[in-house]
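Page 47, continued from p. 46.
Same chain as before, 284 aa.
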Amino acid sequence: MRWALILFLVAAVFAIPDASPCLAHAKPSADVSRGPDLVSEPDISDTTSEPSSAISDISAADISDIAATGGASDVGVAVLDLETGQVVSTQGDKPFYSASLSKLILAVDALQQQQLSADDQDLIHRALSASDDNAMDVLWTRFDGMDAIGRVTTEAGLTGTHAPDDPSQWGEVVITADDMVRLYHYVLGSSVRDAVVAALSAAPATAADGFDQAFGLLGVTGAYAKQGWMYYLPNEVYLHSAGVLDNRYAVAVLTTNPTGNWTTARESIDTVTRALLGRLTVQG
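Result:
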């Protein structure tokens, strides 16, 4: 009876989940909704630093106004200038459930293993490009997902990212916008760069589960990105887009929409992304 009710609720909003096990869970607890204190890395400065790059003219107020264009959505935005290491963000340290952005974190750890079979490499490519949940299920078990999140967090200097409370729910890895741009900064200077960039650059508009993942950064000229989407009971829609623009900016737009409506959530993240990229184009 419990599962019948859950299926009814999902069908009612035409939800196509990216990390489907999360559909059976309740709303995240209060401790998840509070943002951790952010500790800046030595080579990454925030908006209080002296202007030194093309994004230096984007103030904290500007980035907050851009996030506000998302309407009812709760939005975390971060941009990191890959040439200078400067970051601008709003709610950059706010925790969000990752949905499929955890696939990128796990892939970074897996790709650093000494020996990868052809099957391993294919699974990683599918998880990053078509956001294949079946591939991620295998990788999460094969490459020790829970500990992998911790290893990457340490190596990349992430401060608000951690493994899920429930080891079976990889969509509930906790991330922040600041950490996602830091992760790209790390990836692009590492041995896994080519494999990650190639897979993300090959992302199709339609994901493995049939979901239209062409929102946010995906499809923007000069950008590649990892997308995430998840419907979370009772009525939260997660849509995330995190990637790299023009090989200059690492960008993360994380959103949670309370309406339970995919169309509304998609319009929200697209509006925020357009506003943000408009400013980066002007500044760059």
